[in-house]
């Protein structure tokens, strides 16, 4: 998670404003193919398929990547370490990678190092999927 000086509400509003207002049909088809991979990966618990799907964002990620210094270097670092995919979480600036638990720490460290090479302070958290859905936790 990069530490950037954004106020959450302002950041989300701006991250929405920079999205393209119109998108070429061929790009939408590519995007839907990636979405199908994400859903298939989730439905069948196939991490590799899920990872390929999150790497197939041709609309939102390119627009929002500009808000995260070094994003593509961070994504590349995760993939080099064996992650199946990496992308921007929500409106950003948090970034996540899909990888096996066995390499999660190595992937997180590589992502932090890539951010730091861009002059961005960052940290990582190894998380696992939950069947409970969203919940509020104290992270302190």
Automatic annotation (TrEMBL):
Residues 50-116 form the GHMP kinase C-terminal domain. Keywords: ATP-binding, Kinase, Nucleotide-binding, Transferase. The keyword Kinase applies. GO terms for molecular function: ATP binding; kinase activity. This is GHMP kinase C-terminal domain-containing protein. It comes from Thermoproteota archaeon.
């Amino acid at each position: 998670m990069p530490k950037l000086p954004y106020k959450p509400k302002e950041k989300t509003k701006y991250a929405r404003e920079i999205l393209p207002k119109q998108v070429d049909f061929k790009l939408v088809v590519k995007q839907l193919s990636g979405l199908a991979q994400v859903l298939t990966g989730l439905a069948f618990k196939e991490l590799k398929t899920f990872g390929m799907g999150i790497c197939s964002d041709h609309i939102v990620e390119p627009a929002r990547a500009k808000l995260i210094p070094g994003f593509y270097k961070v994504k590349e670092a995760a993939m080099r370490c064996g992650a199946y995919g990496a992308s921007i979480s929500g409106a950003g600036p948090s970034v996540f990678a899909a990888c096996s638990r066995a390499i999660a720490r190595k992937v997180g460290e590589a992502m932090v190092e890539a951010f730091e090479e861009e002059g961005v302070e960052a940290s990582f958290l190894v998380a696992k999927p939950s069947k409970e859905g969203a919940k509020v936790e104290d992270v302190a």
